## 1
Amino acid sequence: MADLNPMNMKDWEIAAAAEEQMKTVYELAEEMGVERMELLPYGHFVAKLDFINILKRLKGRRDGKYIVVTAITPTPLGEGKSTTAMGLVQGLGKLGHRAIGAIRQPSGGPTFNIKGSAAGGGLSQCIPLSDFSLGLTGDFDAINNAHNLGMVALTSRLQHEFNYGDKTLARKGLKRLDIDPRNAAVGWTIDFCAQALREITVGIGGKMDGFMMRSGFQITVSSEVMSILAMATGLEDLRKRMGKIVLAFDKRGKPITTADLEVDGAMTALMFRAINPSLMQTIEGQPVLVHAGPFANISIGQSSIIADRLGLKLADYHVTESGFGADIGFEKFWNLKCRLSGLIPHCSVIVATVRALKMHGGGPSVVPGKPLAKEYTEPNPALVERGIANLIAHIETVKKSHIIPVVCINHFHTDTDDEIAVVKRAAEAAGARVAVSKHWALGGEGARELAEAVVDACQVRHPKFRLLYEDDLAIKDKISRIASEVYGAEGVTYTELAEQKINAIQADHTLNQLGICMVKTHLSLSHDPSRKGRPKGWLLPVRDVLLYRGAGLIVPVAGDIKLMPGTASDPAFRRIDVDVKTGKVTGLF
């Protein structure tokens, strides 16, 4: 580690050097207390864990301390939440504690686009980087295939129902479902940012080429199957949820599920290996569980309940990650994941950077791929002060859950003592512990202050955990409470389509207690990514409402956000390659 200098090395170069000294998965498993037959290796340095048998064996063991990592509203560059999660695990290790991290597997969309992978950075990364970034143990392939198999079942059934009469269908063992081709609930999935596939027409050709209808693609991580993987408590629960997925509606408006199409069993068969979390490690050799996916702005965006249950049984401190800011990732962790799992964290780390606070204070636009304006690299405590309102909003959100907030100032080399002092004063005045962490530059040693603050917070007997809304609260009231108490909106507006869908959901009394999984930009507390800081005097516009019946979620879509992102003009794939002499992947970040 001593010869790895992040100031003059790229992240992938640091990862490649660190990988020369990696522990094998067998060494990791032995240190964790995982038995050899509970380890499912994928080569020497990556494995899956047989969570069923591990949890059965450790049933009586007391859980460790539970920490969730979230952040303030980020710049488009991200503020280092995954890096901080890795740094905190390493810092806890420096203090002599057994620590495990749980992070989300990166999507191919950002990996090959602008944001890059999500392994962390500098001296606080999850390795091996190329495995992590390029498919890992196949979970996303399984999600993609399971989702698209459902669409194959739907579209082929449409073709057969159109071409054959009831008697012919009956001879084939099929009952007419009377599917409405104009009312499909979902489209297809692909794990890239492919804006050209948002709106397509399928079935073009002759009678044997399928039923012609409008369709489209969404990115794989936004699939309901991904949300089910994150929220499932076990294989039996996964199987039940897979049969409840709504793919379309019949001509009377009745939902058509995967069970109606008799494809749910096969979809589960594609997913049954994916339910086991993958095992990797930090640069400093602590275990990291990788399970479920990112994009809390358009999905659940949480590392899985199963990974957290495993980490809590195997470690003194388990550090889990939720997506983007506390308004999105933490809110879903708090009101969806904790509600279902029954697990309550001891504290929440809120990652903040001087850079992001300057942006919220009125600094120039931050554009990926372009140099930062001088306001971000030169001292300007006044600009930081003007952006503090955004940090305070996220602290207040965490405090509403009665979870203890710990603000981590993720230190950049351009930060000054005066700028950091502004953040410290404001965060402490708002009732949060504060720590400056230099994990990017120094690894676990640089995260000691953060680790000490987290250990201290975990010793406090905190007030009783509080959810934001009750199960039986009306759908609009749940949405309104999130909009007002978390985002700071003065109210909510609905399109006619959204009103119709809410009314249809409410008509089925079995759906009224489902949780709310908002789709909203991550670049603002509001629905408008251009509104920085802590916007006032605005209304949240809900334009659509999706039903993820299998995942147990009602999904309101706010603003112009789409389930399929687009690829930029200077994507990361232009710099990714393979060194043909060594076989190593280069250019990942």
## 2
Amino acid sequence: MRARPVSAAKAGRARRATPAAKALALSITKAAAALTSPRRRRRSTRRRARAPAPAVVPAAWQAIGPSLIPKGQTYGSNVVDVIGRVSSIAVDPNDPKHLLLGAAGGGIWESQNTGAAWAARTDQMPSLAIGAIAFDPTNPKKVYAGSGEGNFYANLGAGVYKSLNGGTTWSVAASAPFVGVGFYDLVVDPETPAVLYAATTNGFYKSTNSGAGWSLKRAGKCWDISVHPTGGTVEILAAFADGLFVSIDAGNSFAAVALPSWPAGNLARLAVDHVRSAPAVAYAFAAKGSGAYLWRRVGAVWTKIAAPTGVNINQAWYDWYVAAAPNNQNQVYIGAIDAYRGTVSGGTASWTNITTQGGNSIHPDQHCLAFAPNNPQVIYAGNDGGIYRSANSGASWTTLNKGLGITEIEYLASDPSTWKWLMAGTQDNGTIRYTGSSALVWDPIAGGDGGDCGINQLNPLNVYHSYYSVSLERSTNKGNTWNELGLPWPPTLASLFYPPVEVSGLTVAIGAASLLVTRNGVQPWTTVPLGLSSNEFPSAMRAVDANTLLIGTSAGRVLRVWWTGAWNKAQLTSPAPRYISCIAVDPTNPQRFWITISQIGGALVYRSDNAGSAWVNCAAGLPAIPMNSVVVDPANFKRVWVAADVGVYQTLDLGSSWGAFSNGLPNAMAADLVLHKQDRMLICATRNRGAWVTPVP
């Protein structure tokens, strides 16, 4: 199940080039409002009355999970239930059974029974990327959340959200100045709860009116905030890219904190935390270069303490925290790829790895840790696999992932005979398979990161999946067992983190700096040079037939590769010099191509009626947001669907006009679309809200 390790190279996982974050976030927020506001929908319907309209109202999309992925991967000798990336966890200070969690791109979820059941609470909010959640400690009915996940989806920030009923319903408390900004931390001042502090990708912000208005108090990336238990006028410690800083005036001004053996230059990451029961004691945990640095303060003196041997800092930008045990000044937790519990004695610390520990391991990539308010030995860990609870300070764990629909699906493929057999590549939770389970449980069939995948439509027993970079495996029994396909590991060809894979009968191809292709379903591979420029890679691929492949690149180039006893290559006209995310070929006309673009700055959907010699701008009526996937109806060539960063859209007139096709779909990023020809079902894969399906007449 772990033929490839869980990736330690997520810095390469960027899926596209993006413009200024604020412009992108504003466009996505506007599109989300258009999809979710009844008033806006009515106006939109009137505007579309002159254009062809659907024959019937689109049926509501239905979630098909995963609601659970059993036997997921760890770095230990066991397997655990997984579901998807959790970026933040908050426990109600008055009710330890009441939990809130933020998914990286899947919104806020609530449990009233210690994680036994979960409910999505923000599906129609303008952004489902959540970076931080904080209860008001004096009135837990008030809860705040920062949208825009600092670790990865920072450019999806839409502001601060607020709940007045403990997290069940939410509204936008403030958009400005956080549109396009990611949150790392959010803290309610324990002494003056109308005062809030935010650690963001843009700096340290403060609100004095319960989140309605905000002011920047210190610029520069701010990763973490720790407020003295009696309030910010006593002390705030804040972790910035240029070091640790202290404020004694509620965040209005800051002074640098001198730490012994401080590594010169900006840090890769820094976290800080007070001991609640003994706030004169605090911890700071940093990554710089190849080293991990830990400091402990007692009174006014900071002392350097050795971090655990072997702590992996390769992803410090992505997963990093320090959490002081609230009742024990000599106990501290640190999180990176693994999490460790440390016990300090005499200026040194003894460490226990609590997340990779043989047969009692949980998923790696640790993003957050929370303590139960009534028992500090009860801790909650949030990571790329989901949420886990320990009743004994990490000695053993219980998974709480059942019912959380927060899987980040990157790619989908379906069996041509039934839509109820699907294969999906997921971020850090491998390749998974759906076989129609009424409980919406998807089986893991390959480990590591799950990349692009494909099915031989002539013999659907033969399926293919990739991990990341240039990797590919083949199964002849629909994923029960796998065989390597002879590609070198580590890869020798540069590529996107998830390179495109295409399967057409026995023709199988994977796009990198050169095209790797076979015509018999297995190795040997033929390498076809593509003549791309430096840092340009295939980003989309589609087979016209088993002898002809279309390739779109990250720079907007379109190539045709075809077989005549040898592989030939030609460059077609480019619709735009921007990142091509998907290509579709009209099943009734192999000369008609569709292309989506996920890099804004112009039209985002194009059509060619002459095999790529010229392109028609088909973006009129679509929101100006990244378009990620496109499919053509084989029963009606004028009917086409596209998936966007928010919503699915339909045209009935070859792209002259478009209408929303998102009834019941959450405002998550729609990453991939599959239309099942036989069953007339449209399936949408989302980033951190799983898969959804709707029938199409």
